[in-house]
Amino acid sequence: MDWGTALKKSPPEARASWRSLLRREQPSLFGEILDWMLTPLLLLWPLSLGLTWLVAQGIANRPYDRALEFTLQALTQFVAVDQGRVNFTLTPQARELLRADDIDLVFYQVRDASGRLIAGDPAFPAPAESAPRPGVVLLRDDVIRDDEVRVAYTWLVRGGSTEPLALLQVAETRGKRSKLATEIIKGVMVPQFIILPLAVLLVWLALVHGIRPLSELERRIRSRRPDDLSPIDPHGVPQEVAPLVASINDLLQRLTTTLSNQKRFLADAAHQLKTPLAGLRLQAEMAQQQLPARPGEDIERTLRQIASSSVRATHTVNQLLALARAEAAGQALPREAVDLIAVARQVVEDLVPLALDRGLDLGFETLPAADVLRGAPPLRLWGNAVLLAELVRNLTDNALRYTPRGGMVTVRVLSDPWGGVQVLQIEDDGPGIAPSERERVLAPFYRTLGTNVEGSGLGLAIVHEIVRQHGAMLAMEDTHPHRPQRRGLRVSVRFQAAAG
Predict the structure, then answer these.
(1) Quick one: 306 and 394 in the same domain?
(2) Among 138, 169, 350, 471, which residue carries the largest CB count within 10 Å?
(3) Kind and range of the H or E element at 182?
(4) pLDDT tens, residue by residue, 41-95
(5) Whole-model pTM above 0.70?
(6) Would you say 343 and 392 are in contact if contact means Cβ atoms under 8 Å apart?
(7) Count of domains in the chain?
(8) Are 246 and 390 contained in the same domain?
């Protein structure tokens, strides 16, 4: 979608466009599980880093705090009281010890009880406690000359007295502490950068392995034949999918029952409808034969109409049964290798009497000729012989019905053994079908107006269904495009055959 177009739309239309862009067309179970597993992991990772940083700070402070306390205790040895005055005398060796650290700076300060500076750095900040706790070593964070420092301090007392004598403070910059904390964080974070992708990969592999039974179940279902309605074997199906498989098996069972009922209905309908209609036709014909030499015209016309109606009704019933049989072919009727030439020849032989009765020339051709095909691999169609015979019969019967007396109907089978293609052609000398009507005549009960030919409008619908069942292609064209009165119709059905 063009983003500019989306932005120019009204707010409701724009919101709908964004929703359509963001919404998944088909949710993925694999993606949903992966999202719910990886999203918390990715959210917890920054939290883990923050906790690691806090823990690293505590770990880095602990040893250096103890060292700072030790330095403070050592400096208390240099504090003395002479005639009520506090003195602090630091030996050169002690001064060198304080300056021995090449990373951090060490500051110290000594003040008496009144706050007077005795020794050390005058910029050293005073502690925030209003009530001193003599004899207790305390720690705090502070700033000296814009440097962050860690401070250890204590109030010194004399003998068993509780009155503070002097305040001694020692501070150290945080260089070594920060360096140690950084090393600890690096030691924890770097493995996490390696472990996290490995964890994602392991989660992905675990999900792929976990849904493998679903993929196997999908493969088993896809590999089934269209007419295989047996229950799905629940062996190896995960427990979570077992109810779904049970529901599918229940559906297959109900579908099997429905198809069985349909087949039984077809058989019953064929028996219940065809037999009475045949009897009605026979009775009408017998009544016509038994009429006196000069019967009443009304009675004779009525009997002729009864006979004609029974013929039409019988033909319609046969067509309906053939259509139902064709629509159910994918589920119920078996398929086999079929010789289309033999099927077409047999149908033509069966319809020769009808063609002679109507004064038509019915012919059958195979191209290439049989002698040319002798050296070629035989062609077979994978389909149902009954339906293919019904297809040839309906197309030929339609051609015989619409071709006027004296015309010609040709049934032709074109074979290409090396290309694996067979084409069935039926052409006639009738009025043909207008191009605008050729799609519509394939619908059930649709008949072209103005033909004045009796029929049920089901013949081409049956042909279209059988063509669809066999994966073939149907085409219609004029036999004689330059003859406006009798253009004729050529129906071609192209099959993909298999050598064998």
Answers:
(1) no
(2) 169
(3) helix 175-210
(4) 778 878 877 887 788 777 777 888 888 888 888 888 888 877 668 888 777 777 7
(5) no
(6) yes
(7) 3
(8) no
